[in-house]
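DM between two lab members

TW: hey, do you still have the Cl-channel voltage-gated family protein entry open?
JB: yeah, one sec
JB: this one, 438 aa:
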Amino acid sequence: MGNGGYHVVAALVGAAVGVLGSAFHLSVEGLMTGWPAFLRDTLQLSGPGLYVAGGLAAAAMTVVALWLVRAFAPEASGSGVPEIEGAMEGLREVRWHRVLPVKFVGGVLSLGSGLVLGREGPTIHIGASVAKAAADLSRLSGTDMRGLLAAGGAAGLAAAFNAPLAAVLFVIEETRRQFPYSSRTYIGVVLASLASAIVTEYLTGNVPYMALPVSQMPYGALPAFIGLGVVLGAVGVAFNRTLVWSLDHVRRLGQRRSFYIFPAVVGLIVGVLVFALPEATQGGELLAVHLAKEAPGLALLAFIVLLRFVMTMASYSTGVAGGIFAPILALATTVGLLYGSALETMVMLPADTLTAFAIAAMGGLFAATIGAPLVGMVLVMELTGAYAVLVPVMLTAIFANMVAQWLGGRPIYEILLERTLAIEAEARAAEANAAAAR
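TW: and the structure you got?
JB:
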């Protein structure tokens, strides 16, 4: 296939992903607002009855979401980004005919239940699955197929956050070891991201998803953003290690008893929190904006940081389809506000500094956990529209990344891919030993 044909396919993939990504977003929002309203307004439940019904509803959605994954497409568990990176390395197979329906329906159920998960992972996986389907239909293989997978994944990220530039950079920076870079594949990624963004804007509007107005920071405040980066570097390493620890412990629990017990319990808790403490549920993008504008007190911020951290670990460890971008951004916002509020008790801060800390923290924690500081910087700019604080964001992100590396941290998706491959190797060895024993 010539360059023109390949680029047409990439653009069509991007447009299709824009449609599917928008449908996924709207479906999640519809379910997340629909079932609580049904229990509270239509059935007119309140008090303990409402909490019990909410817990049972969220638990049921979580268990069904996990059943879909385990029964039909185990690789649809989690965000899907490690799967795409593995496929681009030739280590994983994208079974698009299974992943597409399971990731979409299972993702709607898991995110719509209120679990602390993001929609960007599923849309990236959906995008790459659409790309694999297009590659099969076009009989593309090798470098062209791998390039198209990257284009589909980028289109998924563009659809999730309406951030086409960050989507392109995500491929260049995050998948730098796997992406078959050439002018042909690079242009394909750009075209797919653009097509997805255009379709997404047409269907859902062209306003920064987490718009936060903020004024420019004086130069004297810049050292404080370096300090924030240092803090976030440590938080990012702790986040990654705790996430892997949680996944391993929940897996061992499932092997001893049932893989559905823990997700059911988490679902029950989340269903209650949807009504009792909604700040502890969902991806948290809107919560991040609310907190940045309201800036609650130190004690409440510390409580929200702890609660969001725990619920993110619990939600991702269930094994359902869902990403960690959005929970990372919400957690980062809260950490940034906590840092700024603590600093404000000691020194006088310029106007809008707390909001600037919240914005910069998003880029910083992204850089520390994902290991892609440039993507973090640009993604935050596209999400918030806060270009006035670009320099503070860059300082925070790069220092967070430097500290994370100094502490021995590694990109979370790289760790998760290695973990998946190790588990599969262990399973194959166990099957071989069992066969030999027979």
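TW: got it. The chain has a mean pLDDT of 90. Residues 3-42 form the longest helix (40 residues).
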